[in-house]
User: Fold these one by one.
Assistant:
Number 1:
Amino acid sequence: MPNEPANEKKLIILPGEGTGAGTDLLDALIHHFSDGEATISDLDPKLIKELREELERSPFFSQDMKNLWLMLEKALTKTGRNPGIDDQIRLLNLACGHCEEGSILPAFFGKGGKRVRQFAMDLRDREIDKARRRYNMTENLFRKAGIPRVREKDERNTVEFVADDATHLVGYGQVPARFDVIFIRHQNLWHDREVWKKIYEFVINRLEPDNGVLFITSYFDREHILALELLKTLGGNVLFTEQNPHTRELDYPGKTVDRHVAAIVQS
Ligand SMILES: C[S@@+](CC[C@H](N)C(=O)[O-])C[C@H]1O[C@@H](n2cnc3c(N)ncnc32)[C@H](O)[C@@H]1O
């Protein structure tokens, strides 16, 4: 992953801000971390300003998360599905690496008031360690800002970080048998097709049959096409796929952040 230049100019607009879209990222994060107790309008504007400045401190983070959020919103709408049972979503964030989106995903899927139980998993211990620290830092930011009841431990509304091989998940029984949402950011089919075939077999079979949705994003055009072809042969039905109009260029030709986003369900 490229490092962010320290002197990058900041001009970040969070989702919904000034657009009338009504999906403010900060509002969703406040909802997530306060366990639904607070919304942006309940809080001191000075505090809101400080939280925004904190979130925008890392320009690529805000930009990428804003774009991911908008793409997920579009993809989910196009599926016509409303994943989750009652007010609960079981979310698997697979091959999550250092998991930039660890707090954004439950905020996104929980914005309608649902409880989100997220399992974030990656093969590499070091990445999972970083992911856990990153999530805790964000949580602390909200706690320090005095957001009421920063996520009490409620087993229906948690984030668990698991360092393990996704292809072993079936045997371990350490995660739920079914998921309402499975998310794979920057899927990596090209790295090892056989391993990723096993991962995709797992995710297609573990989606809640009636309304479960798999979201994948890809860095490259060709890799995305190949992943969708493979998913179809494994019983996936691609309901939505689109090139992200706001994708950010990276250090390799043709490689950009969340270049493609797709939503897949069980056939
Ligand atoms: C291209 S990286 C994407 C990481 C992260 N999702 C992101 O967007 O930055 C692919 C990730 O897949 C993980 N991975 C590869 N094989 C895996 C497996 N069998 N089980 C779990 N994770 C795996 C790697 O450790 C790596 O972090």
Note: The chain has one domain: 25-266.
Number 2:
Amino acid sequence: MNLYEIINKRRSVRKFTDEKIPEEIMKKCMSSSLLAANSSNLQPWEFYWIKNPDKKKQIVKACFSQSAARTAREIVVSVSRIDTWRRNRDLIVANFKHQEKFLPIVDKYYNKIIPLIYFNDKLGLSCMLRSICSVLINIIGIFKPVPRGPYTKSQLFESVTKTTALACQNFMMTLVAEGYDSCPMEGFDEKRVKKILGLNHNCHVVMIFGIGKADQNGIYYNRFRIDDKLVIKTI
Ligand SMILES: Cc1cc2nc3c(=O)[nH]c(=O)nc-3n(C[C@H](O)[C@H](O)[C@H](O)COP(=O)(O)O)c2cc1C
């Protein structure tokens, strides 16, 4: 299948067969998700493959026992994080140094600008300070283009979640390329999912995937998309 055929073949499947997915295919699909484009290459994602039967049961329940979760052969939870930037930044910098490509601009970007954007403390003081600075930035913005965030914790979450969603798409595409199906879900109780996985307030559960081989009744409806003209604009 070429890429267009893979994109076209992917559907949200809500009923799966019992067919097992080989471990190496699951690993390949999860690894391919990590190749997604991502902001500043900070890779703020995590993918939890739920293998423990008890935890799987709990996750299914937290997904309101919807069919896509209940019948799934495998379940993967995608998570975005606002607290891994420092570790990942250090790894990126080390890699630049290893390749002898640690230019002053790279140093400035990762060691000065990135902390300014991503640093956030428990009390939210850094976010508050950034929000206060944003008033000044908005005034400067009247005269010239300026970066307008992220300033707040929720804007940071928006940024890392945007990036993680791209990885999620890679994941679903690779599953199709390997002959398997999935259903992305945001119908779950996030608080419970975080508790099951031991995740803290710096994490956001982006999507939960039910994965397997589509049952013959696994696709509920014919695909429907609103007219291109309503959403693709040429100006
Ligand atoms: C972020 C996100 C959340 C979704 N949540 C659910 C869900 O909780 N349950 C479900 O059955 N489908 C869920 N879906 C699947 C959508 O309903 C589906 O993608 C949409 O109807 C289009 O159908 P298609 O994926 O087959 O093209 C979700 C999809 C996305 C991208």
Note: The chain has two domains: 3-79+155-231, 85-153.
Number 3:
Amino acid sequence: MLAVVAHPDDESFGLGGILAALADQGVPTGLVCFTRGEASTLAGSTHAESPGTGSPQADRPGDPAVIREHELRRAAAVLGIEHVALHDYPDRALRGVDLAPLAGHVLTLVAERHPSHLLVFDQGGVTGHPDHVRSTQAALVAARQAGLPVLAWALPREVASRLNAEFDAEFLGRGPEELDQAVRVPRQRQEDAIACHHSQSADNPVLHRRLELLGDTEHLRLLYHPL
Ligand SMILES: [Zn+2]
């Protein structure tokens, strides 16, 4: 299974339960992450609305891009992800990047690691973040070229509705007719991976409420299957 995401922490906050469940079943997993999440402030989140500081990606202590890479690699180890390809596309500006080079990075990993499936955020990005939408679009372009099925992590409509009501959020939910598979996940290990992302997870009530509402179950949609 090759997961394709926009930000360091998406593999944990979003896909972490599913990736840990796969690793437990002996399924080799890998990750393509298009940005280093550098638009995040260290106390805030890359998913916040305020603009980033635009700090250059100098390799110095305190640089969000460096800190977030370390966090990502620790979280990937917790989740049993065997291979991480981290790229330098601009955080919060992925929708301005052509799909061809993004898909090309996925195809490179496909050629090297021979995954049977791609795993992405649901169309619409789940949280509504444009970077998430773009990552899924790129994975779909790659999947069509490689002839691979694409599974999407999706939220049940009732969970999305509760979160939107409680937090004035914009989660996209799916009805039961749109959800293809329920997966029991080792939630504690996802929590352990989330904890590796210190700069993003210290104060994140929406995330913790989402996991509480989902219990030990996540849902997948089949976005694409080659004929
Ligand atoms: Zn994200």
Note: Confidence is low (pLDDT under 50) at residues 48-59.
Number 4:
Amino acid sequence: MTTTIPVTLLFSDGVSRRLQVPCGHNLVESATAAGLNLLTDCSNGQCGTCTAQLVSGEVDMQEYDPSVLPDEDRDTGVVLPCVCHVSAPCAIEFPYDSTEALTEEPAPMPAEVTAIDQVASEIVRLELAIGETVVFEPGQYVRIHPRGTEVVRSYSMANVPGTDRLEFYIRIVPGGAFSSWLDAAKVGDMVDISAPHGTFFLRHENRPRLFVAGGTGLAPFLSMLRAVAADPATQQPRTTVVIGARTHGHLIAMDELEQLRTSLPGVAIHLAVEQGDGPPAHRGYPTDLIAQLHLDADTRVYLCGPPPMVEAGRSAAESIGLPRKEVLCERFT
Ligand SMILES: Cc1cc2nc3c(=O)[nH]c(=O)nc-3n(C[C@H](O)[C@H](O)[C@H](O)COP(=O)(O)OP(=O)(O)OC[C@H]3O[C@@H](n4cnc5c(N)ncnc54)[C@H](O)[C@@H]3O)c2cc1C
Ligand code: FES
């Protein structure tokens, strides 16, 4: 007879669920079998989307990318449930409400490509028309599946919620499967998109914000800033935006950001460029600037971009006294 092990899943709305998991089974698969869809993306320890906190007991974690889960986080009980196997009783806390896990994944939505424009070096703006209004939180992402391919990749919306058009900024990765599809795609092509996902969304709280973006990691922040601008009645906290790019030619949406800066009180924008000539900007990484910004001790930090940038940002935030566990991260793996 297979031994089963009690596992308690705790959600941020206070709801808990207890599962009996056969010894050695994968945690996410066992939760799915019990009717709970835990948040995942890559399902093999490469993206950090599933990140959760082990509160008691232990789990066996299989191979994962250490840039997504550094040893210092693992030592404090942070786990990647997609690569966790259950071998002893444990309790795991998830940073989202139980309702997110209990809702069944809706059927994919068909979408038509309405624009593909190269807007900066190696960066394409993709616009999709959906037959219905898409509701999401600014900062969330969808999975896009081009029809006739096996490819499914995640991309963050840059537009405001509640429209039937979605806008994405996508870095072209040489040899990448989605990048190759996008390179040949044309207006009128069809894709299927998942429902919006993710816990990296704008928190409505009265504390200063720091947004740090690397490359196309600016996309979710564009959505957040646009949403804030569309809601002038609500007083927004001070927001510092730091944008990093390889060269000035890799920067996107600069004119619009300047408009947002002038129209939104309390928004400051800093640029960091690694190489090449151009308008004044910090020479180096966006995360270099964190220690120089004189941030308030209660600043909520949001980091989005390549995993090494996100890790550098977490360390920089920690070095000025901002707790790692309060930093919100989206890693574009
Ligand atoms: C939550 C989330 C949101 C995201 N949002 C965005 C976004 O808004 N914008 C954005 O630009 N990206 C975003 N990403 C990243 C995006 O999902 C993709 O990972 C990225 O676009 C690369 O996809 P691809 O299919 O082109 O490359 P992949 O096929 O996944 O390739 C990735 C790497 O593998 C290499 N490779 C591929 N095939 C081979 C091969 N046969 N041999 C050797 N090497 C190979 C490629 O050269 C490349 O370096 C997001 C990721 C996540 C997890
Ligand atoms: S879903 Fe677990 S690390 Fe990607």
Note: The radius of gyration is 20 Å.
